[in-house]
């Protein structure tokens, strides 16, 4: 039986990374889209040469400097689509190669719905929290500003729409409740698969 593919997503500050950690602690392998991008941008990564060709200033010590890409994106409206055209297919290859021998695999993908990747999943999980809590969490991060948060949210699907499209929802008000919700979801997936 192939592994059950659960797509995990949630807007910034909703507790997605913490929730992914609960799956890992429960023995469920998690593929992380952000970590895949870091691998692709690192020295020897598959995205280094094509991105350096697009933006030579981004090449630093044989790796891609994310700060340089952000500066390019801020200065040129065509930059982001050009970068995505290189990076997204490489990320998809990395994701397809992740096939651990297990019954459930979690795919932590920030833009799961925005990029249509939910079609590759057996189910989706959206983590959510009230807007005030989300805002407080994000603004507590070093260097984060109101403008920075607004810019990130403008590129993400609204939380309400993500929840409407999700197979499962976990509210991340507290660590214990979220951990228990993850454990219950793992049990539910296993029971329904073997029913």
Explain how this protein is built.
By secondary structure, the chain is an alpha/beta fold. It has 2 domains: 122 residues, Rossmann fold, CATH 3.40.50.300; 64 residues, no CATH class. Helix content is 51%, strand content 14%. It has 9 helices and 7 strands. It has a 5-stranded parallel beta sheet, with helices on both faces. A two-stranded antiparallel ribbon has the order 3-4. Helix 2 crosses helix 5. The relative contact order is 0.21.
Please work out how many helical segments DSSP would assign: 9
Helix content: 40-55%
Query: How many strand segments?
Result: 7
Q: How many strands, which pairing sense, and closed or not: the largest β-sheet?
A: 5 strands, parallel
CATH superfamily caption of the largest domain: P-loop containing nucleotide triphosphate hydrolases
Q: Low-confidence parts lasting 5 or more residues at pLDDT below 50? A: none
Class of the largest domain in CATH?
Answer: Alpha Beta
Instruction: Give the SSE order as H and E letters.
Output: EHEHHEEHHEEHHHEH
CATH structural fold name of the largest domain = Rossmann fold
Whole-number tally of structural domains? 2
Overall pLDDT score: 93
Taking the alpha carbons of the first and last residues, their distance comes to 14 Å
Structural class: alpha/beta
